[in-house]
Amino acid sequence: MKKRILLLAGGQSGEHEVSLMSARSVLAALPRDQFDVTAVVISKQGRWLPPTDTQRALETGLSVQGGDLVLHRAASAEGYDAVFPLLHGPMGEDGTIQGMLTLAGIPFVGSGVLGSAVSMDKVMTKQVLASAGIPQVAWRLAVRREWQDRPEEVRERAAELGYPLFVKPANLGSSVGISKVHDATELDAALDMAFGLDRRVILEAMTKHKPREVEVGVLGNDAPIASPVGELSFEAEFYDYKTKYTEGHAQMHIPAKLPKEVSERIRELALQAFKALDCAGLARVDFFYVAETDELLLNEVNTMPGFTTTSMYPKLFEAAGLSYSELVTRLVELALEKR
Ligand code: ATP
Ligand code: MG
Ligand code: MG
Ligand code: MG
């Protein structure tokens, strides 16, 4: 019997469009002799679109208004063997959808409520990984209310870290809302932007030198494996939205040209982080490597990384001998094994 798969795409976060791109690739790659696949696009307003509107959204990248509220559709999702929540950012990668599917008793691809929620929040991630002894940059948390009522305290936290520093919404992705703050004169605007997108904001020290950016894929449930290490290079000051999604602005190098010992350290730390955060299925673990000081710092863990055929995560496993379509098949198997 073919497995009935529900692929969820779009969603309410700033990464809606990125999710639609990933979904087109996954839809084309799930082997039809094994799977009966239905796609549902979730609009930016959080409505689950009917088939014709879903089709249009996938083709044009535009999701119209309308459709059902999430709770109406949760019950009908029961007709599926597994759900592939190919959603990035809040209301998709953060444990919310995962909680609904858990309540409904439907297996799904990727991390559960705990792993998703903790990994989505950059502050919670840092706290958990610090207690697991994983090296990271220095950081401070600020919440919106503090910025409104006691801005001097927040500015003081930034001063403690020193400049340049990074300001980020705690729960987002694709570099949306992230600023590199060169000195104190740029701080307020960066905080205003980040707080416009999230209640929680993280301030991060920058590495002493511009770091090399290396990423590794992790695949599995309780006995995960790590892919080869990949590296990104680009001209921009940091890996911002435009650099990520404009053709030709960033180059991917797989495997990364690193001493074997460094690659092994990266893969080992990625597996440790995956376990410490209680991730499942897949994650892309991103690091900074400062060659000058031979320093390795874990930047973040993405529990639903970009998933087009040219995205880093599938490319890393392709280098390990797993084709894109074998990879998505494996992810569905892992979802079914997880219960
Ligand atoms: P993703 O799309 O991978 O989910 P994201 O939106 O979660 O990304 P980060 O990976 O935290 O954001 O940061 C985006 C980019 O900003 C990094 O890839 C890096 O180029 C730069 N950056 C972020 N934090 C630092 C830091 N502390 N020091 C140096 N560069 C940084
Ligand atoms: Mg991220
Ligand atoms: Mg992300
Ligand atoms: Mg990142």
TrEMBL record:
Pathway: Cell wall biogenesis; peptidoglycan biosynthesis. Its EC number is 6.3.2.4. PROSITE patterns: ATP_GRASP, DALA_DALA_LIGASE_1, DALA_DALA_LIGASE_2. Transmembrane segments: none annotated. It comes from the Bacteria. Gene3D superfamilies: 3.40.50.20, ATP-grasp fold, A domain (3.30.1490.20), ATP-grasp fold, B domain (3.30.470.20). Its cofactor is Mg(2+); Mn(2+). One of its GO terms (molecular function) is ligase activity. It is found in: Cytoplasm. It is an enzyme of class 6 (ligase). It catalyses: 2 D-alanine + ATP = D-alanyl-D-alanine + ADP + phosphate + H(+). Its main location: cytoplasm. Keywords: ATP-binding, Cell shape, Cell wall biogenesis/degradation, Cytoplasm, Ligase, Magnesium, Manganese, Metal-binding, Nucleotide-binding, Peptidoglycan synthesis. SUPFAM superfamilies: Glutathione synthetase ATP-binding domain-like, PreATP-grasp domain. NCBIfam families: D_ala_D_alaTIGR, PRK01372.1, PRK01966.1-4. Belongs to the D-alanine--D-alanine ligase family. Cell wall formation. This is D-alanine--D-alanine ligase. It comes from Deinococcus xinjiangensis. The lineage of its organism: Bacteria, Thermotogati, Deinococcota, Deinococci, Deinococcales.
